[in-house]
Design brief:
- The structure is a single chain.
- The chain contains 17 helices and 19 strands.
- By secondary structure, the protein is of the alpha/beta class.
- It is globular and about 70 Å long.
- It folds into two domains: about 350 residues, Glycosidases (TIM Barrel); about 120 residues, Jelly Rolls (Sandwich), CATH 2.60.120.
- The strands form three sheets. Strands 7-6-5-4-3-2-1-9-8 form a nine-stranded parallel sheet.
- Helix content is about 25%, strand content about 20%.
Length: about 575
């Protein structure tokens, strides 16, 4: 079968053996060498930290933000600066989270204020604490500013006096905005207004001048609108000059400091909201671009295509670090198992990226052995190559019935897809594995393909194809879950169709295509059939003629001699 590869350059060329972070000691940081961390980890500074500990929070408890990542491949911690409107450190130009609140409607938000206030009053400015601790442990620290959030209401304890008193700076303040514009974005800052840009810049400049940071991150993918829809063309130039101003401030504050920007997951989507990422790269205004998909639902997506960003950065000094997220939120699992993380990481490395940005992994907190096992492998696609992988296409979930609503501009979801009788439906997904290679040395164990159809019955008839080949109906196992009493997380009803693929039907390295055609529909059912899940598992043996040692209950320790 002809291979249809999506690989921009080889995984070995993209990663290979990754060096430890440069600038691991104060002396090393002052030697003038540019710091280029391969693995960045986003810590929002709130959920697994200041929300968790009872006041008064100890300095050592706050240092846990760093300590929990010591000894891992993480080289740079991207540390959230509060809510973006208000801060959780001792800012002099901004406002402290909750400083204007007398009666608290939210106990956790009160706890965040208490802990921040008490740390500051005891002489332990939280941002300086994590900066110092990171440097003590040989790691880099980049503060992250959530650049764009709505102003909120008087009851929003996280918002600021500045936002409440300056509603004239909002996108919708002048009225007459196109009715199709998202209503929730009308209360975002209008970056055409100089005062809005100055307020944001003041927080950045203060952080760069008062704290021993190693760079700065602009989180531009939180509220993804920056201008009125009829002013986006003009807005792109305004935003580019603002990014240039921030970049100058970063460089002025320290020659080795870097500017990182997190942006929507498509070049076209960035352009559509006024973010001219290609121009930023061309002018050398950004050191690292972090494309992000499902930044709202925070779902893992092994199908994320960042090749356009890689191509835009080719020949420049800008590096591309796509976000690798951890949530699955399926009916069977909350967090992605190591097999899913491997699949996504290997797909990203195969596209020629310069590193990975681990975003929203704090949902795994408190971190256990499985967390560290995953971190150990992800910088090394060659290590992950002959290990089990689980590829899945993002779909509807319990918390996010329609995740596309929070999807970045310029991107679409493939699943779920409604089936129409006689019409072939198709989904695409990349696969980094090379089953034929590992089969030759007898390392491949099996390849499983699973799909789930909802609102189907035993009378419906289907035709399934994988990479153009008709899948043998005789080789298909159906699992009836038209109704079930319980489920690991929440219930989804339908039929699973499962194949243990033979060699002729193995996936190819690169782009793969699954197709299903509804040939005959049960006439007694009103709801439409939906293709809801598509999953592929590639499983390996530890060596030629080896047992499946990955299975803890069937390995040598259990006394099993064969499988």
């Amino acid at each position: 079968m002809k291979r249809r590869s999506f690989i921009h350059r080889t995984a070995a060329g993209a990663a290979g053996a990754l060096p430890v972070a440069m600038a691991q000691t104060p002396e090393a940081r002052s030697n003038g060498a540019r710091q280029r961390p391969k693995i960045m980890f986003y810590h929002d500074g709130r959920h697994p930290l200041i929300y968790m500990y009872e006041p008064p929070m100890q300095k050592e408890e706050y240092e846990a933000a760093v300590d929990e990542l010591v000894g891992t491949p993480v080289q740079a911690i991207m540390f959230g600066l509060g809510d973006g409107r208000t801060m959780l450190h001792d800012t002099k130009v901004g406002e402290l989270w909750g400083h204007r609140v007398e009666k608290w409607p939210h106990t956790i938000f009160r706890r965040a204020h208490q802990n921040a206030r008490m740390l500051i009053d005891s002489g332990h400015d939280p941002l300086r604490v994590v900066c110092d601790r990171a440097h003590q442990k040989g790691m880099l620290l980049y503060p992250t500013l959530l650049v764009q959030l709505g102003s909120g209401s008087e009851n929003d304890v996280r918002t600021s006096h500045f936002r409440l008193r300056n509603r004239h700076l909002e996108i919708g303040a002048r009225g007459g905005v196109d009715p199709s514009f998202p209503k929730g974005s009308l209360h975002l800052l209008d970056f055409k207004q100089p005062e809005a840009r100055r307020e944001r810049f003041a927080l950045i400049e203060e952080t760069l001048t008062r704290y021993p940071v190693d760079g700065f991150e602009l989180q531009l993918n939180y509220g993804t609108h920056y201008f009125r829809p009829d002013e986006i063309n003009e807005g792109r130039k305004i935003m580019t000059e603002w990014i240039a101003e921030v970049h100058r401030a970063v460089r002025k504050s320290g020659a080795n400091r870097e500017l990182v920007v997190r942006v929507p997951g498509s070049i076209e989507g960035c352009w559509s909201v006024g973010l001219d990422v290609k121009e930023w790269i061309r002018r050398g205004l950004v050191d690292v671009v972090v494309p992000q998909i499902f930044g709202g639902p925070e779902l893992i997506d092994a199908t994320f295509d960042v090749r356009a960003f890689v191509a835009a950065a080719k020949g420049s000094a800008t590096r591309i670090r796509p976000t690798l997220q951890s949530d699955v939120d399926s009916d069977r699992m909350g967090q992605a198992p190591i097999e899913m993380i491997r699949a996504a990481a290997c797909n990203y490395w195969a596209q020629g990226v310069d590193g990975l940005y681990l975003s929203h992994w704090f949902n795994r907190w408190p971190y256990q052995a499985s967390f560290y096992e995953i971190l150990r492998e992800i910088p090394h696609p060659d290590v992950m190559a002959p290990k089990d992988k689980f590829y899945s296409i993002p779909t509807a979930s319990h918390r996010h019935q329609n995740p596309a609503e929070g999807l970045e501009p310029g991107l679409k979801m493939q699943l779920p897809v409604t089936l129409t009788e006689g019409v072939r439906a198709a989904v695409h997904f990349p696969v980094a594995d090379d089953p034929a290679r590992w089969a030759k040395v007898e390392r491949l164990h099996e390849v499983l393909l699973r799909v789930r159809l909802t609102d189907t019955t035993e009378l419906d008839r289907y035709e399934f194809r994988f990479n153009g080949r008709l899948l043998d109906p005789a080789g298909n196992r159906r699992i009836n879950e038209t109704y079930k009493m319980v489920s690991p997380r929440y219930r989804v009803f339908g039929y699973w169709y499962l194949w243990r693929l033979n060699q002729a039907d193995w996936p190819v390295t690169g782009a793969n295509r699954f197709e299903v055609t509804l040939k005959r529909r049960d006439p007694g059912i009103v709801p439409a059939v939906k293709l809801r899940d598509v999953e592929l598992e590639v499983k390996y043996k530890m060596g030629k003629n080896f047992h499946r040692g990955q299975d803890p209950d069937l390995g040598p320790a259990s006394g099993s001699s064969a499988q």
